[in-house]
Hints:
Strands 1, 2, 3, 4, 5, 6, 7, 8, 9, 10 and 11 form an eleven-stranded mixed sheet that branches. The longest helix is centred in the first third of the chain and has 13 residues, at 32-44. This protein has helices spanning 32-44, 77-87, 142-148, 203-215, 221-230; strands at residues 7-15, 51-52, 61-71, 92-100, 110-120, 134-135, 154-157, 172-182, 189-196, 245-252, 257-261. Helix 1 crosses helix 2. It is built from five helices and eleven strands. It is 20% helix and 30% strand.
Amino acid sequence: MAEVNIRNIRLFIAYDGTNYLGWQVQPKGPTVQGVIQEVLSKILGHKVTLKASGRTDAGVHALHQVAHFLTTSDRPLEIIFKALNSLLPKDISVWKVEEVDFKFHAQKHAYKKTYVYQIYNYPIKNPLLRLYSWWVPEPLDLEAMKSCLPLIIGEKDFASFRKAGTEVKTTVRTIYQTTLERSLENPNMIVFTIEGRGFMRYMVRNLVGALVEVGKGRLTVEDFENILNAKDRKVAPPPAPPQGLILKKVGYLDVKVLESYPSFEVKI
Length: 268
């Protein structure tokens, strides 16, 4: 009997989350994971289950989601890449396919993630940006918002910024760095960037929701600190809407890559 060769394939994925109920397969409605799994199963001739670095919620976007799956197919990476992108809908792109070491796991081996959140801060809304930013027409005090950022750096208990009603083993998370700047390309766009070991559901959106309240003058920097220290979701403002959130990067250390397609460096 011929020996069966099992390959571990890693995908780098970008998607517009507008029309999906998030990454993870749901009983009702389309998901990014569900769509890609269905296409991969057709290409490879067997059922495929994707394991991702983490899930994104309904309406949230990604430029750099990472997922892996196991296959017994010997189809070349080039064929998998081209077939995937020809069959996937226009709002999903697999921009790199790699065969990696069998031990690699997209979620367990991710050591940092970077999210950006876009706030369109101008009295008049821009309909072309409505799906990729939160329109906040009121003036925002950017310096006051920036004053809150050092408070969330390091290992902290972010219980006040969790999603209400969700169960997690711990609400402690480690944040490496954050920035809050106006975009050079569009000064009306405020971009919040946060890099950390990992995040709870709604955590980034809840942080942004509180930061905007500080920017509007409804909360002080001291209020923000008190909310963080309270470790109680009930004392924090509502979350920012999902469409402004983008998964920008997932970081890994020392992944053994056996083969990659395309061979050039992809910048997306």
